[in-house]
Write a structure and sequence with these properties.
By secondary structure, the protein is mainly beta. It contains no helices and 5 strands. The protein has one domain.
Length: 62
């Protein structure tokens, strides 16, 4: 997985009833766009994450 600052990340719920989380990548700490990513989620929470198979990156629209 590769991303750039400004891309959106979507984390799908892993269990029944768990909602989807969305956020914006504000910092890429890995080499060449690889994780970990510092993400600001829609609820204002910021966290460092290593996305798993339940995540997808949406490229920023120019």
């Amino acid at each position: 997985m590769r991303a750039s600052v400004g891309d959106r990340i979507r984390v799908h719920g892993r269990t029944v009833g768990a909602g989807e989380r969305q956020g914006e990548i504000v910092e890429v700490r890995g080499e060449k766009g690889r994780p970990p990513y510092l993400v600001r989620f829609s609820d204002g929470h910021e966290g460092l994450m290593f996305p798993g198979p339940d995540s997808e990156v949406e490229q920023r629209q120019e």
